[in-house]
Structures are given as structure tokens and as C-alpha cells.
Write a structure and sequence with these properties.
- By secondary structure, the protein is α+β, with helices and mostly antiparallel strands.
- It has four domains: 14-43; 49-180, Glutaredoxin; 187-437, Class I glutamine amidotransferase (GATase) domain (Rossmann fold, 3-Layer(aba) Sandwich); 458-490.
- 29% of the residues lie in helices and 25% in strands.
- It contains ten helices and 23 strands.
- The strands form seven sheets. It has an eight-stranded mixed sheet, covered by helices on one side. Strands 2-1-5-6 form a four-stranded mixed sheet, with helices on both faces. Strands 15-16-18 form a three-stranded antiparallel sheet, with no helix packed on it.
- A hairpin with a 5-residue loop joins strand 11 and strand 12 (275-277).
Amino acid sequence: MRIKLPKIRLRIVGLENLQKNTIIVLSFAAFFLFNLVAQNLPFSLDFSKGKFFSLSPSTKKVLKDVDDVLKIKFYVSSNLPRRLEPVKSTVWSFLKEYEKANPNIEVVLLYPDKDPKVQEEVRSAGLPELQFSQLGREKFEVAKGYFGIVVYYLDKKEVIPQVVNFENLEYELTTAIYRLVNKELPKLAVLGYENPFGNQESPVSTFDRFFSKSFQLNYVKPEDLKEDFALALVFDNGEKRYSTPEAEAINRFLKQGKKAIFFIDGVWVRDDLSYAPADHNLFNLLESRGLKLQRNLVLSASSEVVSFGNQLVAYLFPYPFWIKTDVFNLSSGYFSNVSLLTFPWASEIKLENKNGYKTSWLVKTTKKSWEQKDPFQLIPDNITVPEKGFREFVIGAKAQKGKEEVVVISSRRFVLGRFLRRNDNLSFVSNLALSLSSGGLLSGISLKKPSVYLVPEVSFQVKEAVKYGSILGLPLLYLSFGIIRVLKRR
């Protein structure tokens, strides 16, 4: 007779709980370890809109040349308005990408208002103090602080006064690093004017003063153009005609794969508002590259206010021939920190891809613009606005073939004297010159469009309502739920 014995199962009390706890602890440890390792990896995955946290290939090429310690110091005041907190964290995350790209780059976050030494460092660097406004108790409060970057390399530095515009951040920072790392300033040839040294009345004296800080400016004749010039700036001075041999010399220079920016008119307008057909002899050179400069003048409802009169009486008029525009081709980095440009007495540029050149527009007028053809009515009182015929006009354009690049600004006064300081003309031409003289390196940095939400300003009453609603809301919710349960049981 067989007797079946019951199966005995041994169970160690607490062993299952121990296994579960071990798995949880190991999972958390693996998660934190993965994050720790991932932060120091030289690559990252960017799922942000517009790939904001991804450095462009051009930036990576510039950073490769950093062969000594380069410090990027992000100075931020601790009393920033709350709406700028998302901006601060986003900028900091973006700057860390520069640190990952090259071990010689160090990124530091500093608070000047917390450390007197840092405060002194900021002042000696020349970083300006900014004003921030926010809504306090039923009134606007203004606070002063810092929100800028200083880049240090060897004994040199570059200052970015404020870092609020995300679209320009990569271009500004990479350009600053490019200027610091470059051992020699780019060599530029200037045609059409003589060296203004010591002559404050020269039309290019203001231009020379600004540009000589970032470039080696050489005032030469067309026949003196050499291969070592990174860029030529060709000016139409409104009087001089480039001879056929001179035009051919400029053409030969470009054919070597060189770059040039032309500041030329379609119509010569004199300061006394008389005019003459433009006779600079550069029309054919540009037309062969698909940039056909018209012999008209463009007017726009978006225009500068100009003073007319004499020493005794002056009148202010919106002058349609002095065009203001913000219609830019943002596919390039030329428009970093550029929001508005002024074109005095500009002409239209018609584009055509021909002879192997690819053309593209850079600047257009606003849609409410029109044209005048000879005879021109330049006096403000004689200008009439047509009832129809409004459209956009191309007034800044580019042609490219291989390494050769030609940019045309259809206004010879665009960077002369008072016009250089108007709106963002200086920033635009500086961006152009830096991009072209770098062999197109900096032009590969396009403007970014990150999706960063700035916390909006709200009234004091709304803030208080949210505050006490958060404090009392949850207890009241639980109390209401308890009362309903008790009433249902009864």
C-alpha cells in the first residue's frame, strides 16, 4: 500500500519582497548611471523643434581650431524675472553642446550679484548691465542685472551683451569664437574710395573705423587686386566710372573663385536731388552673373522720416525713396541681430540663373512698394502714390558659382556715413563680410527657431489667485469628496 505524502513548499518570508526591492534599487541605479554617462558622451540626440540643440557643421569646423583653453562664461543675475527662467535653462543646455564639441572649451555659469569677484570680473570685461521689467504688486518693477556671455581665449575676449534672441545665438557665439581663434584678421580690398586716414569728412571714415577692428582693410585699385584678398568691397562713388580694363580686372579676380560685395546704384542721385544715369560701368559684369540691376528707383510706404530745409527752417517728411524693410531671406546667417535695414535711393535687381551661376534674393522691399522711371520726381512734394502696381522688389541679391560669390546691394550709400548707423545696416554688412571672408564657413550657420515658451506677465491679482488656489484647492477638494461619501452612506 502506497501512502501519498503531501507536497511541502518551503517559503522564506520576505524573500519575494527582497527581490522586488533589489530590482527597484538596481533599476534606479542603472537609470542614474546611464544619465551620468550620457551627459559626458560626445554626441546627443536632439528631438527639439528646429534642432535647436544641434550644432551646425560650420560651427563644428570652427570649434576644431580651438587648440588652447577657451572659456565661455554665462553671467546671469539671480533676481531674473520668472519669465526668463526657461530662457536661462535653454541657453545653458545649448552652451553645454560647445563644451562637448571640444575638450579645450569650458562653459561656466556665474552669478555676479552673489560674488563680488565675479561682479568685478563682469565690469572689467565690459558686459553691460541690463534692465528687466516685471509686474509686481499692482505696478511695474524694474530690476537691473546681467544676462550675457563673455568668451575668453588667450589674452583676448568677445562680449555678447544679452542672450535673449535664440535665433541668433549660434551665429553670434560661433562668430565670436572664430574672431578669437583666427590668428590673422581677414584681408579685404576696398575699391572706389581712397584711405580716409585722418580725414573725418571722407564718406568711408565711419565704415573704416568700425571695420578695421575685424578686418585688414586695403584701399586699392582694381589692377592691384591680389589672390590673398579674402573679399573685395566694390563701391560706386556716384562720380567715377570704372574703365573697361578696371572692370575686366575685377572680373578676373572673381573668376579665381573669389568673393565680392558691390554697393552700386541704378541711378545716380545727388545730394541736391538732381540725378543722372549711373555710369559706373559695372552693369554688364553683374548681368553676366544673373544679377541685372535696373535703371529705376524703388519707393516704399515703409520709409525713413527725412529732414528737408535749411539752417533756419527744417521739415520732416516720410521719404519713400529711403526704404525701410524687414523682408529678409533667413536661410542664411547674414541676418543675425538684423531686424530693419535702410536703403537710400535703391534700384531693383532682377534675377536669372545663367552661365552656371545660381542667384538668390537676400533683401526685398515690403509689398506696398512701387517704382519710378526716368523722369524721376525726387522732391517730396512732387511724389505721388499710385493707386495700383504695388509689389515686392529685390534690392539685395547674391550669385554663386563654385567658390565664387557676388553680393549686390543696390544702394551705394548703404554703408556710408549716417546710413551705416541707421537701423541694422552695420550688423548686416559685418555679417556679410565675415561670412564671405571665412570662405563661406560662417554662412553655413542658419538662424534657429526653437520652441521656447516665455512665461507671460500676469497681474498681481491673478498671481495671488493662483497662489491661494494652489494652497486651498487640494484640501477643499478632499473635503468635498469626503462630505459626498458620508452623505451617500446615509
